[in-house]
Structures are given as C-alpha cells and as structure tokens.
Design a protein that fits this description.
Chain A has 214 residues and is of the alpha+beta class. Chain A has a five-stranded mixed sheet with strand order 2-1-5-3-4, sandwiched between helices. In chain A, helix 5 packs across helix 8. The N and C termini of chain A lie far apart (58 Å). The N terminus of chain A is likely disordered. In chain B, strand 4 and strand 5 form a beta hairpin. Helices cover 26% and strands 18% of the residues of chain B. Chain B is built from eleven helices and eleven strands. Chain B is an alpha+beta fold. Classes of the chains: A alpha+beta (214), B alpha+beta (316).
Chain lengths: 214, 316
Amino acid sequence: MARSHDLDINRREVILAGAATAVASSLPGGAEAQPAALPGASGPSHATVSLTVNGVIREIEVDTRTTLLDLLRENLQLTGTKKGCDHGQCGACTVIVDGRRINSCLSLALMHEGQSITTIEGLGTPDQLHPMQAAFVTHDGYQCGYCTPGQICSAVAVLAEVKADIPSHVTDDLTAPIALTEAEIRERMSGNICRCGAYSNIVEAIVEVAGRRA
Amino acid sequence: MKPFTYERALTPAAAAGAAAATPGARFIAGGTNLLDLMKLQIETPAHLIDVNGLGLDRIEATDDGGLRIGALVRNTDLAADARVRRDYPVLSRALLAGASAQLRNKATTAGNLLQRTRCPYFYDPAQACNKRAPGSGCAALGGYSRQLAVIGVSEACIATHPSDMAVAMRALDAVVETVQPTGTTRKIAIADFHRLPGDTPHIETALEPGELISAVTLPKPVGGRQVYRKVRDRASYAFALVSVAALVQEDGTGRIALGGVAHKPWRVEAAEAELPRGAKAVTERLLAGAKPTPDNAFKVTLVERTLGAVLADGRN
C-alpha cells in the first residue's frame, strides 16, 4: 500500500509541475522568450476518461498516451480487438465508435470522452453470433484469425455506410443510389489487410449478410 | 510516444491562444497522422490541444453561392455531402481516392491539409532529413526517390505533399480561413497555403505559430466535367504516384491540378491555356523546369498520359 501511495504522490506532483509550466509559459512574451521545455521532460501525465464500451459505462484513469486500442486491450482486457501494425495500415484494430468504424490504434483514449465503443465482443457472443460472425464461419472468411475481429467490425460498418448513402472510390455515379457490388465491397474493405489472403471468402460472407438484409 | 499533457479547448480563439502560449503544443483533431508520427517520435509535442469540441464540423452555404466546410468536417462526411457530390464532384472523388474508410471517418478537413509527407527518409529517424531535423541534410537526394517530387524541389528537400483532397481544392480555388492567437481571423488562398521547400522544408504552410484553421471555403460551383484520376501502386489504399484533378468545360477550357509531383498541390494557371492543344502541350507548361531523379523521371511521362486519359474522358 505504501508503494501505491508513493506513486499517487508522484503523479500529483507531476500534474502540478505540468500546470506550473503552462502558467509560466503563458506570461507575456513567454512563448518566444522561454526555451521550449524538452518534450516529455515533465514525465508521464494522467487524466480520467469516461466512455461506454459494449454498453457498459467505464471511467478510467489513463496515461495521456494511451490509445483507444491499448485502453481496450490493456485496461479493459478486451483482447478481441487486435494490434497489428499499430500505425493505421492494417485495420486489425478496427472498432465502431458512435456507429463509425475507426482504427483504434490511431486515436487517444482521452479523445473518446462520452462516446460509445463497440468491439467484436459487443457484436455477438459464442452462443449468439452476430450474423456477420456466423457468415465468416460459414464461408471460412479467415485462416489464422488475427485480422478477423477487425474485418468483422469493418464489414458490419460497410453495410451501414452503404445504407447511409456514403459513396466509395468505385461508385460509378455519385448522385445515384449505391448498389453493393463485389467491387464496392472490395474497395470498402481495403483498409483491412489479411495476410492469409482469405479475401474472396470474406467477400462471400459480406455478400451473404448484405443479401439477407436486402 | 513521449509524455505530453492534454487539454480540451472550448473555443477556436482559446485553442489558438493556448497553442501560442504553450511551448511544444500541437492541435489534435482526427489524430490519424499526428499519432502515427508521435509513435515514431518524429513528432514529440509536449502538450496536445484537443480541438474536437470546437463545433467546427458543419458544411454551410455561403452568401456568394459557395460552401464553407468546417475544419473538423470528417473526410467521409465531406465526400458524402449531397452538395459536394453534385456541385464539386472532383472533391468527393479526391477524398474517396485517399486512405481507407476507417481513416476517412476520423481524418478532418484541416488535418488533411496539414498532413506531413510520407517521404521514407522523413519517416526514418536514422536518416538525414531537413524537414524532420533542419540542417541535417536530405538522404532522399541520391536515395530511393521513386515516390518523390519532380518539380518545385530544392537541394534541401524533394518530398511530396501526400493529400488528394488538397489537389482538388487547389483546382477549385478554395480559401483557408484561420483564427490567430489574438482572436483575429484571416483568409489564405489555397495557392498560397502550402509552401515550396526552398531551404526551409520544415516550414510547410503559411500558418503562423498557434494559428488554427477554422474552415475551408469553396467559391460558387463552376460546373464542367470534373475528374480526379489517381495512379498508384495498388488499386486502393495507397498514396499517389501521380494524380490529376481536372475541371473541363464544354468549350475546352478548364483547370488542372496535380498531386504526387511536388511539395504542394501543383497548378500552373498559364498551362491551362494549352488545354485545346492537348495533354502534351499542357504537361510541358505544367512541368517546365522539372528536376526529376532517375528513380522518378517516369512521373513526367505519367502526368502526360494520365492527363491525356482525363481529357479523353472529359470529351465523352
């Protein structure tokens, strides 16, 4: 206990130190006259964020550097969302925030105050799969499975985006209703990489769910 | 990432004021480029000012028949806006040609304008880069330069600006509106917004310290056939080798802007007078004085061919 108490004291001092720096630098002429503080010289900074994850309200204190992806995996142990490249290139970390898919690796947890996050764990359960999860199983839309949670979150969002009349690079006519062709699905899923190359089966799974909806 | 302090700004002027007053501060909106660079410690802000709550997320008609696009309008929303699809389709097409849906859902209008180059030497801290570390040299000169700029280059930098959106905005004569730390506002023509590298490639835009983009305005629609054609190494989700934004009128006049070839969206108004004489004549004017490297000399030919294809489309 003594140890965590010490940590708390340190944390408080760090935040105060950060505040003092900000005040000093806002004095007249401060921005030019003062040497810029060494980035990060004041040590880690913490803050609290409140958000809803898969229907559950969470309030968590995080290091300001914590990405939404790390919050999900490390703080909430929701390890369904995967860390692939951690740079927004592979799509393995795709989650749905307030109805929109994003790369959770390229977002700070603190930027999601009051927002609602849906991860693969929130879409369905092993006993009650989401239709997209079931279709991926039916069509073998994966091999190793590492990209699959991101693929499924993305695929669910693709259908919502088409329903919301959001065009894509391959949409022929920007002013006509969008038809969900295979070319549309492939283009819209291009932010999700599958190293195993299960793409054709992924497309089949999405086509099946889209057809069932229509 | 290096540690940083974080605040949420409540008004545009307060955000600009905080940025000017806090050493090492940066604005964060979508974060899709800044956080990527922070993870690599290419960007090391000591303080982040979250501007997502500023309410600059609307697209509104202007009094002169144009559109005012809030700085925080997401790329997806701008591309999908019915007025943009109808009156400025080149902008929708350019946005949809960029990044992935996940990134477009988050990336903002202002952030897209301010995104940094994808030059591999900028991204590799072990390499010399005048943009990342002023005065350290340019490893791209004499390095692997296939993706890099062919015109407007300097001895200090041959990086390209990676945006598709900005190329369309250049063709549309967009205007960038800003708020300065004093609270005053100003307007910057898109032509003057991005800078050529010269000997200060780390200074990329006309923005002053702390200055915040509040909106981008488009003049009233000029019609014509509008095309954005992007040539890249993959069919999707890749940066341009060359891109062409074109507005071609029935009388054969038009506007042409290029992406993937320079440190800024590349447009030479005088070259547009050559449009009746075809792609070769236009390209000769557009790229007069080009200094390609052996790796990227193909881009000069590629511009001519891409423009040729665009003009052929435009005559359909």
